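Ticket 4471: requesting a sanity check on a complex prediction with coenzyme A. Repro inputs:
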Amino acid sequence: MSWPPETLQTARLRLRKPLASDAEAVFGQLSGDAEVTRHLGWLTHHELAQSRQQISLDLLRWSRGSAWTWIVELDAHPVGMFRYSLVEPHMLRIGVMLARRHHGQGLMSEVTRRMIDEAFRVSAFHRIEALCDADNLPSRRMLERAGLRCEGRLASCIIHPNLSSLPRDAWLYAISRQQAQDAALIHPHRIPLEPSAP
Ligand SMILES: CC(C)(COP(=O)(O)OP(=O)(O)OC[C@H]1O[C@@H](n2cnc3c(N)ncnc32)[C@H](O)[C@@H]1OP(=O)(O)O)[C@@H](O)C(=O)NCCC(=O)NCCS
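Returned structure tokens:
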């Protein structure tokens, strides 16, 4: 059985593998919105072509097994993105963004909780982490709601080019398989799945 699944469901949201045709919605609500991209590691997109290119890259990474990006849909409309990047064979890093009008409704913490459970179905994965800008309070709150723990502040660790060309401090959040089990955040009966070969 291969991992990851191309579609997933939460109580309110559906996640699916991106399509080239998502570029307009992604550009319109996410990658082209300077408020959404403020604390991200790339410059706000100014042209639709940049978002098209990004989706092509996301699909390439999916096929190579280096990162997996899902479109988050609410009522069948794209409203966000969730990404797992493979940092080490045992470790994934979360990346998220959500359309501004849907912020603060608990949507991305709902997605993240579901994705933590999904990742720990794979016996190879033992740790999921996220790095967020020192000033990104909504992201910190979202990660805490989803069950990740703050492991500390990393000095001059991350470059967020929409804010500065200089490295900025970041908060490191993480959850281990054991912590998720202890907090009953994941289903106790694991299937020994392995990620699909690139
Ligand atoms: C980070 C992000 C995905 C959170 O999504 P979300 O669905 O709004 O998250 P949730 O509603 O699950 O949780 C957000 C928390 O932040 C709080 N919050 C929302 N806006 C806030 C603000 N401007 N200032 C402080 N807290 C805020 C919410 O009340 C909630 O906290 P609570 O549990 O105390 O109520 C969304 O804000 C976003 O897309 N930001 C831009 C992209 C980004 O920064 N990504 C993270 C990179 S690490």
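Notes from triage: The chain has a mean pLDDT of 94. Leaving this open until the requester confirms.
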